[in-house]
Specification:
Oligomer: homodimer
CATH topology of the largest domain in chain A: Molybdenum Cofactor Biosythetic Enzyme, Chain A
CATH superfamily of the largest domain in chain A: MoaB/Mog-like domain
Structural class of chain A: alpha/beta
Helix content of chain A: 40-55%
């Protein structure tokens, strides 16, 4: 049983030159994937007739559906409608209802100016096209089938594009007979290759579910996708395989389907009616940033003391001057004092402290770059942990922030 | 003489499904465009042998150069090397020097664990491939010519990908006898179309230098590339045009060639022997994070008070309880009190305060989402500024952090 094949064609010199990134397709792909469509190919070409026509012809022979974006506007580099006619071997026609619409639209926006002639070019579509309109703009979307493929031609402006995808294209694509269910299991504390090894026996025993892997440093994600003739079968296959994977992965799985690590931990803290405050040195606010980028985090995130300097460790957190002199900032007593000082000053339920050497400078033989002391202070007292991280400055900082969150995750497990 | 044709092939189910957006190609396209390469097509395919092989074969017949990204890792969905061999009709071989490299790399990272066998798969490359290595990862890049096209196969991890593009691929693309000198002028406070307009007369008068544009929110970058038969000529042309551009752009240019905005400001603060401390509310540590991700920032960054809650604004910064009650946290008096409280407590030369509504919730008719009060406190007193930013939560937070840095940039201009 095969799912319908979907392709994207993106046109535009600006995309080709890297002036703008194509964000339309990623968004649309993420919407179509769970609906059971096999997205097979995206082709990006510039504003060249030869390249657009070639891309359309290739796709026409290969795909069931294609969304084409860009090149429907009024200017001389808007070639897509003419290219569609050429690729399909049909003439162009002027769509009179859209001409009327353009006149009315123009009169509303600029009542005292005549409509420029090139504006009306937007009503020229291939003879066999079905005009789909555009509630937010002057370039009409249209649909057109040639060879194997039903094409949807859409304006490239993201707001117009997404509304037409959502309101017109997706309802047309949905067919009975193919259902997909998917899940992403997000893991922390395991390498991608180890993750692959751990689930390999399950993957081999269950070809009805597709396995995918993705690294989002320092996390690794496992995606599972089940395609079946009906929802019940797809859900059953997915549930069976997900359960097996969760059994072998245990608490390496921290969350699913797009939650962030900070959000997963924060949600558990919020559910307990508790709060977090951070005391950061080498991470310089990164941990707090990860916590507060979550919408609604003000419920459980009190804030942070980012004490980068010795002086601020003393004045803002009350770390004793003699302790810093005797042990240095990267030491167990200082990590402990930072966590305890933050708790006393903030009144938060949990405080997390991080003090380490993120590099590239500042390492010594006894405390090389990557040496990080972590501390957590909560209702049951204070716990510390010494970690040695590898990588560049950014990676050491990120691992340190995750390490601190992991202490909290374990404390409230 | 026609410009060489360049294509990109991007592989990966996660890109196809929209789980991650392909940001590599836009960045590379913006680098290659000013060098005179005609970027003709980007093809994105999933982790399917049939699709990858087809894409490689089509490109091999059509392009002079192709950068292929993704699918070189150790897991079962990493198929690209085998597909390259199949498309070119050559067998695979194990690259022994890379096996040695992998063993050494693993021994350094995890000395007490044996290397997993699938990790060594990364040393398997097509027989005719030239291994290019990878300074930052375990999957080696390789180059390989078949039919018309010289292919560069690169890991998809952005950090690894970009370094190999810059250090290995671009020097190879330049023809012998051609010297390139380039400069990126990084601007803040100007839109892309305005930037284009401002430099248009210079661009038209100086065809010997190519102009490119790129948006890196909220910054806009202008890249200048001079190509000449020798270094002296390229450098002279570049210097001449750069000077003209700097004259029209003035202090919209904050830096060049990859410096960050925070780093540019921090360097000037450091040169004056001064220090910065932040008092952040809605940005939740983002500003401090931007400052401290700069290596060596401990010289001039004291740290921050991230006072997300009312309570922490009072206890950590001494903002009066009655002031918060009367004016609300997002108000001029509170921004001022945060900046002044941070300066009194940290002893830093400059303090920057941010308090606003990042959304998506929390807006009111008087203070809609995007309302942000900024304050700077320094040797000459305190200045405040009201800003109204547009965009989603992340964009509002980022613009707020930039807005605060801009206050400091102006104060020390």
């Amino acid at each position: 049983m095969s799912a319908p094949i979907v392709e994207f064609i993106v046109t535009g010199d600006e995309v080709m030159r890297g002036i703008i990134a194509d964000t339309n397709t990623a968004m649309t792909a993420s919407r179509l994937y769970p609906l059971g469509f096999a997205l097979r190919r995206t082709v990006v070409v510039g504003d060249r007739e030869e390249d657009i026509v070639a891309a359309l012809r290739e796709t026409a022979a290969r795909a069931d559906f294609c969304i084409v974006s860009g090149g429907l506007g009024p200017t001389s580099d808007d070639l897509t409608a003419a290219c569609a006619a050429k690729a399909a071997g049909v003439p162009m026609r002027r769509h009179e209802p859209w001409i009327e619409h353009l006149h009315k639209r123009w009169a509303k926006i600029r009542p005292n100016e005549p409509i420029p002639p090139n504006n009306l070019r937007q009503a020229d579509v291939p003879e066999t096209a079905e005009v789909l309109g555009n509630p937010d703009g002057s370039a009409p979307a249209f649909a057109m089938k040639f060879q194997r493929c039903l094409f949807f031609f859409l304006p490239g402006v993201p707001r117009e594009y997404h509304r037409i995808v959502q309101e017109v294209v997706i309802p047309r694509l949905l067919q009975p007979g193919v259902v997909l269910r998917s899940r992403i299991l997000q893991c922390y504390g395991v390498t991608e290759s180890k993750l692959d090894q751990m689930v390999a026996p399950i993957r081999e025993a269950h070809p009805e579910v597709r396995f995918g892997f993705r690294t989002k440093f320092p996390e690794n994600h496992l995606s599972l996708a089940a395609i079946a003739p009906d929802a019940a079968a797809a859900e059953a296959a997915l549930a069976r395989v997900e359960k097996l994977c969760r059994e072998v992965l245990g608490d390496l799985v921290y969350g699913q389907d797009g939650v962030t690590f900070a959000q997963a931990v924060g949600d558990r803290v919020a559910a307990r009616g508790e709060t977090i405050c951070c005391a950061e040195s080498c991470t310089g606010g990164l941990l707090t940033q990860l916590l507060t980028e979550v919408p609604g985090s003000s419920r459980w995130s009190a804030g942070a003391f980012v004490t980068y300097s010795y002086e601020l460790k003393e004045t803002a957190l009350g770390v004793p001057h003699e302790m810093l002199q005797k042990h240095g900032a990267v030491s167990e007593p200082v990590a402990r004092a930072m966590a305890e000082g933050a708790r006393a000053r903030s009144g938060a339920t949990w405080t997390l402290a991080i003090t380490g050497i993120a590099g590239p400078d500042g390492g010594t033989p006894e405390k090389p770059v990557g040496t990080v002391w972590l501390a957590i202070c909560g209702p049951g007292g204070t716990t510390t942990k010494l970690a040695h991280y590898r990588g560049d400055r950014g990676q050491i900082r990120m691992q340190s922030a995750y390490g601190a969150l992991q202490l909290l995750r374990q404390a409230i497990a």
